[in-house]
Amino acid sequence: MMKFLTQIVALICSVICGCTPQNELPSAEALYQSFDATRGMSENAVAIAVENAANSQRAVVFVYVDWAFMRPQLDRFAEFAIAWQSNNENLRIGFHFIDFTEVCNDYRPLTSLPGWPMRNERPDVGRIGGYGEVVWIADGRVVHIQTALDFASGSEMATLTHSIFDPLEKR
After folding, report:
1. Any residues with CB less than 8 A from the CB of 170 and at least 6 apart, and which?
2. pLDDT band at residue 120, thresholds of 50, 70 and 90?
3. CB of 114 closer than 8 Å to CB of 108
4. Is-contact 60 135, C-beta < 8 A?
5. Total structural domains in the chain?
6. Are strands 94-99 and 118-119 parallel, antiparallel or unpaired?
7. What band does 29 get if pLDDT is binned at 50, 70 and 90?
8. What gap in Å lies between CA 29 and CA 35, rounded to an integer?
9. Nearest to 83 by CA among 64, 60, 65, 49
């Protein structure tokens, strides 16, 4: 089962991050099917998926939990992923849908990454609460956290993503 989940996650990441031919952009419905296939991740599968995102030069993680209604947030994330892939050939980033339901008491290992906001010398898990949060990661470090519905469109999310990742490219 673990190998199957790892293969699904790898397939989703390769499709969404732009490893498909440029004329074969994924549809929103294809992304939803991919999201559905990765729901119910074990604690170990979550750890592998977060490690994969952290090992990417640039990554965006959608924080999913099964106890919250998230269809509008998923719509926005899918819109963002498709808009990014179709308009940003020069700055590749990995898009990751991760089901944190099994680890939602502390959201580890995500909250253990460098750059995660701290509160009282502990990771501030209050930054995540089932609202469809999106976490931007650069070189293994959390650089931004925001809820998907804070944005009016996927294009607006892409604009923010440029403001986060473009300066890092110039280092």
Report:
1. none
2. confident
3. no
4. yes
5. 1
6. unpaired
7. low
8. 10
9. 60
CA 47-133-162 angle, to 5 degrees, is 100
Residue 8's identity, in one-letter code, is I
pTM: 0.80
Please give the Cα distance from 155 to 148 (Å, whole number).
Answer: 12
Are 132 and 69 within 8 A, CB to CB?
no
Asked if the bond preceding 167 is cis, omega within 30° of 0, the reply is no
pLDDT digits (tens, 9 = 90+) for 129-163: 899 999 999 999 999 999 999 999 999 999 999 99
Helices then strands (H, E): number in the chain? 5, 6
* Run of H or E residues at 142: strand 141-147
Q: How far is CA 1 from the centre of its chain?
A: 22
Quote the domain boundaries for residue 150.
2-169
pLDDT digits (tens, 9 = 90+) for 69-114: 988 999 899 999 888 988 877 788 999 999 999 998 899 899 999 9
CATH number of the domain at 11, please.
3.40.30.10
- Alpha carbons 131 and 149: distance in angstroms, whole number: 8
Measure the CA–CA gap between 71 and 89, rounded to whole angstroms: 28
